[in-house]
Amino acid sequence: MPSEKTSIVIIGAGAAGATIARSLSGSLNASQHDIILISPHPYHILRPASIRMVVTNANKLEDQVLVPLDKVFLKGNGRFVQGEVARIDEQGREVELTTGKKVSFDFLVLATGTKWGGPIALPLEPSKVQGFIDEKRREFKTAKNILLVGGGSVGIELAGELRDLSPDTEITIVHREKLLLNSTYPDKMRKYIQEQLEGRQIKVIVGDSVDAPTPGPHKGTITTSRGKRLSPDLIVHAWGGRPNTEVIAASLGSDVLTERGLVKVKPTMQLEGRTNIFAAGDIVNWEEQKMIMKAQGHGAVVVKNIISLLAGKPTKAVYKGSMEAIIVTNGKESGVSYLPFLWGLVFGSWFSAMVKSKGLMISMGRSTVGY
Questions:
Q1: How far apart are CA 71 and CA 80, in angstroms?
Q2: pTM for this model (two decimals)
Q3: Residue 283 CB-half CA count within 13 A
Q4: Distances from the Cα of 252 to the Cα of 37, 83, 246, 284, angstroms
Q5: Contact (CB, 8 A) for 25 and 75
Q6: Is residue 74 classed exposed, middle or buried when 0-12, 13-18 and 19+ CB atoms within 10 A define those classes?
Q7: Distances in Å between the alpha carbon of 198 and those of 223, 232, 260, 308?
Q8: Of 50, 66, 142, 328, which residue is least crowded by CB atoms under 10 Å?
Q9: What is the pLDDT, as a whole number, of residue 2?
Q10: Which of 237, 52, 48, 243 lies closest to 150 in space, CA to CA?
């Protein structure tokens, strides 16, 4: 390596990016290596907890969910650059921000995460985030009949939070699949969470859909594809996000992505044909559900392989996947958990509330960035 500092740039401060930045900062010598974390927000967002944050102002959750990045680097070994990436110059080894600022790299880690829709799609401009949160809280508080389009984990958890907020609001989930969630999980678990929701007077319509109605306050009726008539006064898009990879494709070429917009990676988490560029987190094309623990697993492989390359050694660490476990909350006191051991273990409210529903794992999430 050259005698000057080696620059390692990480784009994205989600679970993968924050894990990589923190781990590298504790392993590398600051006199030899420059670790730079780039993100449009000056904080790490605890996405699972953000669902409760946008529903209620109880405990002012934004102070816990939007975690500052001032402690992310161990021993102060690294620096944070706030900004949105406009272009990646692979040949010149530079990342250009929308402000025109350029950041040079020797190694680049792509951890741009998911582009969300609906109530957890926080604005990129930090100055607009609190206003967005307050607006969502007002909408949910005043609505009398809420339609949630999408019955994955976001829709389920949002429904539970809304029921906690108001015992009288009419809440309906419409989901395309035959059962809630998706076929990664066993039917018994998917049926269990539906029974839980219906036990809280939340209406669940599965195997049906609506034609992407405009989200927000609504007047009039909506007819599902199977002829059910609904009369919501608030429509919420609650489906999953999509990979935030547009800049990657525009900069590195569309051939680095799959048809679904995911980054093609080798088990070493390197891009095909590129030794010095890695990807991790929700954007990679690994066949698994997108979750925080998996993003952190990607990050551990990236860190080991960058350290190997810096030492002049080949990349040997590989990602081998992770078990498909999940905890889905249903408000503060309820939920369903699935662990893929033995014949597949399904746990109900007591276990789910103890592990996740009550505290949303906020303390664990904050520790990712040093809090």
A1: 10
A2: 0.95
A3: 30
A4: 20, 20, 10, 15
A5: yes
A6: middle
A7: 21, 18, 33, 52
A8: 142
A9: 45
A10: 237
> In angstroms, how far is CA 246 from the centroid of its own chain?
17
pLDDT of residue 1: 42
- With contact defined as beta carbons under 8 Å apart, do 293 and 256 qualify? no
- Determine the Cα angle at 123 with ends 298 and 55, to 5°: 90
**Cα–Cα distance for residue pair 76/336, rounded to 1 Å:** 40
Q: What's the confidence (pLDDT) of residue 20?
A: 98
Closest CA to 253 of 280, 274, 238: 274
pLDDT block averages, 10 residues each, the chain of length 371: 80 97 96 96 95 96 97 94 97 97 97 95 94 97 97 97 97 98 96 98 97 89 96 94 96 96 97 96 96 96 98 96 95 96 92 96 95 95
